[in-house]
Specification:
The chain is of the alpha+beta class. About 55% of the residues lie in helices and about 15% in strands.
């Protein structure tokens, strides 16, 4: 049963880690290098993340500078950014690519908050699905007489506590991201 609890907690924590990664890539009005995490550049036939082929810096709050180590890749990086869904037009000056993040309108912020809430809810649904699977396995162990009724009851409580803990963590991450988006 300890193995079941350990696996359940591991899966739930991965769900939260996934939510955190997703939130890092949300464009909230200020420059954030994480928006480039999902952008891959065709580097001699191999899809390569921008961070592996260029220095990415944030010289000021609303701009990002990408300086490729191989200057011949400027056009490819620019093309990859244009075809990605980050919604920012790159400016290529022949040496570096600049991304200027425009200030968000109130309406756009509210749309982003809606998306962020949906992502948090999806994460909580995943956590509850993990709980359901764990409870099913627990019932199976009881049915096969591998654990007692008391063990099953204690296991259910522990699994519910894990579920509550990770759902609360998802809500806390949501509150932080929502505040970040709305106060810019």
């Amino acid at each position: 049963m300890q193995e079941l609890l350990k696996n359940t907690e591991e899966k739930m924590s991965k769900s939260i880690a996934s939510l955190e990664r997703e939130y890092k890539s949300v464009r909230a009005g200020r420059a954030n290098a994480a928006v480039l995490d999902k952008v891959s550049v065709d580097y001699y036939g191999v899809p390569t993340p921008i961070q592996q082929m260029a220095a990415v810096s944030i010289p000021e709050a609303r701009s990002l500078v990408i300086q490729p180590w191989d200057a011949t890749m400027l056009k490819e990086i620019e093309k990859a950014i244009l075809t990605s869904e980050i919604g920012i037009n790159p400016q290529n000056d022949g040496k570096v690519i600049r991304l200027n993040f425009p200030p968000l309108t109130e309406e756009r912020r509210k749309d982003i908050v809606k998306d962020v809430k949906k992502t948090a809810e999806d994460s909580k649904v995943a956590i509850r699905n993990i709980r359901r699977d764990a409870l099913d396995k627990l019932k199976g162990l009881k049915k096969d007489n591998k654990i007692t009724e008391d063990d099953e009851s204690n296991g259910e409580k522990k699994i519910q506590n894990l579920t509550d803990k990770y759902c609360k963590e998802a809500d806390e991450l949501l509150a932080i991201k929502e505040k970040e988006i709305m106060e810019i």
